[in-house]
Structure formats: structure tokens, C-alpha cells
Design brief:
The protein is 40% helix and 16% strand. With 329 residues, the chain is of the alpha/beta class. It has a seven-stranded mixed β-sheet with strand order 3-2-1-4-9-6-10, sandwiched between helices. A four-stranded mixed β-sheet has the order 5-11-7-8. Helix 1 links the parallel strand 1 and strand 2. The longest helix has 21 residues. The termini are far apart.
């Protein structure tokens, strides 16, 4: 029986694949499997993964005939996973020796639906530890109780899918799949759904996963139209949150976070191609019109002056009718 499935998508990361694979070798166990999903790479990645299929215990190689993006690649791996527990790793990141064994022991001891972990971010030689924004450590909690407050960084803002481990029953309930085709912000609808619908989780201070920043091929470094998928991702967050039984309680947090992300992208618009920057402004303005206008106003009033002013200008003059807009479709 497979105890743990590790889903690892790869796309044109040949420079980093050897380090990632070495870290998996240092985590291999007879009852672990590693789903290596090649998302139709065009560099040397496929050859490195074919070698890993022979040399990495528990390796299962899956190749996409067409590039589908990170969300789709993760779904492919998840659909093939046989483990009682599931976790994710990106193809340009790595884990410390024995990390997955510790992670598995942690969730088995706690007996909860999922566990979220701290991680180490590294850019070049600089390394910084990042903590799950949850106060109680090693204590089983209700996920929806950690979504608020609206004006603070909370558990749903720590959206990294690879920073944790998840029981198979969540996949059976449809809570571990990502929105197919999302090219960026794919973790956002996923983490919100997990917190609204799972029954139990815990945050732990286990450091062992290393997240690489500044990779040239990463979408966070590329200012093309794929970055605008964050609009579709947050439209989904708002729509699904509004439909929740406690939607009224959580909607301000969802809208405020959406606005903060819009503001972030507008503030960094110089990295976008000019046509994409114009599209960003137009799509962001349209997104604000789709939001419930009463909640939008409350969210703007709660933000700092610079961001609030920037977003009000984008929003344009208010119409006299005070009817609330619909949540994003």
C-alpha cells in the first residue's frame, strides 16, 4: 500500500531538476511514490526525468502531450496518485533529507484532514524562513475559523499548496484539485475552498521545504498575459465564498484580498508588456464593477490611503443607484 504520494510538475526547469531529484532520492521509502509530471517540456527536462524513472525509487513518470500549466499538471498527478496522503512539490524546489517522513508522522499523530508547514524561501544565496500565519502550533483547528480577520494576513493568504500534507479523503471530496487551465494564482481558489470545506487542520513549525524565488521561467517573473489569470482565480474565490453558508461573514476578506492583489499588479505594471498593462487596467476595472458594491466600498474604506486612492481612480465615479453588484461569475 502506498502511504504518501508526492506530485511534482516540471516545465522547462532543466537547471534545477537534478537538485530536486536528489532531494527526492533522500526522501524515498518503500511506501512512497513520486508522480513526476512533465508538462510538455521543450528543454532537457524530459531526459532527466526519464533517467529519474529508472533511478528514483517509487518514481512514476507522466508526460503531457500539450502544455497545460501548473494547475493542470498537478491535477494529472493527483488523479494518478495512490497514496493515503498527498503532497505537492514544484519542479524547481527541493526538500531536506527525511522531510516527508517527518511530515507524514506529523499528520498521522494529529489525525486531521491536512497540515500546513513553514518553509524556507531562497533567492540566490539568501534564505529566509516563512511561517504559516496561524497562532496555535501543533493544535487541531477548524479551517474556516482561521480565514478572518479581514484586515490581517491569515491562513488563506498562505496559499502554497506544497507547504503541507493532505489526507486522501480530501481528494475524494474534490477538495485537492485545482481549477484546470489557471496559469497563475491557481493556489488561491484551492486554499479558500480547502478552508471553507475541510473539517480539521493544524499548522506546524516543520522546516524542510525550500522554495526557489527568482527563477527566470517562473510566471511571477514574466509580464505576459498569463499573469492576468489572477482575475479569473479571484473571481472564483469571490463567487464561491459568496455562495458559502457563511458567505456574508467571509466576503469582506475575499474582496479585500482581491483588491490588494489588483493594487500589487498595478504597482508593478512596468514589468508587463504595454498591451498587457492596458489589459490589466481594463480587466481590473471590470472586476471591481462585478464585485458586490457595498462590500467593495467597505473594503476600500478599510485599506491604506495610497492603495484606496489608486483603486478608487480605477473604479471611476460611482453611479447614483446604490444597488449592490453581483459576485463575479
Amino acid at each position: 500500500m502506498v502511504k504518501l504520494s508526492v506530485v511534482v510538475p516540471f516545465y522547462n526547469v532543466q537547471t534545477y531538476v537534478p537538485e530536486t531529484l536528489r532531494s527526492l532520492v533522500a526522501n524515498a521509502r518503500d511506501d512512497f511514490e513520486f508522480l513526476l509530471v512533465d508538462d510538455c517540456s521543450t528543454d532537457g527536462t524530459p531526459e532527466l526525468l526519464r533517467r529519474a524513472e529508472r533511478e528514483l525509487p517509487g518514481a512514476v513518470l507522466i508526460r503531457h502531450e500539450k502544455n497545460g500549466g501548473l494547475a493542470t499538471a498537478r491535477n494529472t498527478g493527483l488523479d494518478a496518485a495512490r497514496g493515503e496522503y498527498v503532497t505537492y512539490l514544484d519542479g524547481d524546489d527541493w526538500v531536506a533529507p527525511g522531510y516527508y517522513e517527518q511530515l507524514l508522522a506529523t499528520i498521522e499523530d494529529l489525525g486531521c484532514d491536512f497540515v500546513r508547514t513553514d518553509h524556507v524561501q531562497f533567492t540566490g544565496r539568501a534564505r529566509t524562513a516563512h511561517r504559516v500565519p496561524v497562532g496555535p502550533r501543533g493544535e487541531v483547528l477548524k479551517p474556516r475559523d482561521t480565514i478572518l480577520p479581514a484586515d490581517r494576513t491569515t491562513s488563506v493568504d498562505y496559499a502554497y499548496a506544497w507547504a503541507g500534507i493532505y489526507h486522501r479523503r480530501l481528494a475524494d471530496r474534490g477538495l485537492l484539485h485545482f481549477t484546470d487551465g489557471l496559469r497563475t494564482a491557481e493556489d488561491r481558489p484551492w486554499i479558500w475552498r480547502l478552508h471553507r470545506e475541510a473539517d480539521s487542520f493544524a499548522a506546524v513549525g516543520l522546516l524542510g521545504i525550500f522554495y526557489r524565488r527568482g527563477v527566470a521561467s517562473s510566471l511571477t517573473q514574466i509580464g505576459d498575459v498569463r499573469q492576468l489569470d489572477f482575475i479569473r482565480a479571484f473571481d472564483q474565490v469571490v463567487e464561491e465564498t459568496a455562495a458559502d453558508r457563511e458567505g456574508e461573514r467571509f466576503l469582506l476578506k475575499a474582496v479585500r484580498t482581491y483588491l490588494a492583489i489588483i493594487s500589487h499588479h498595478l504597482g508593478a505594471r512596468e514589468r508587463f508588456e504595454p498591451a498587457v498593462a492596458r489589459q490589466l487596467r481594463a480587466m481590473s476595472a471590470a472586476a471591481m464593477k462585478r464585485l458586490p458594491q457595498d462590500v467593495l466600498g467597505e473594503a476600500l474604506n478599510s485599506m491604506d490611503l495610497d492603495r484606496s486612492t489608486q483603486l478608487r481612480r480605477l473604479r471611476g465615479p460611482r453611479r447614483r443607484q446604490g444597488a449592490a453588484g453581483k459576485a463575479a461569475a
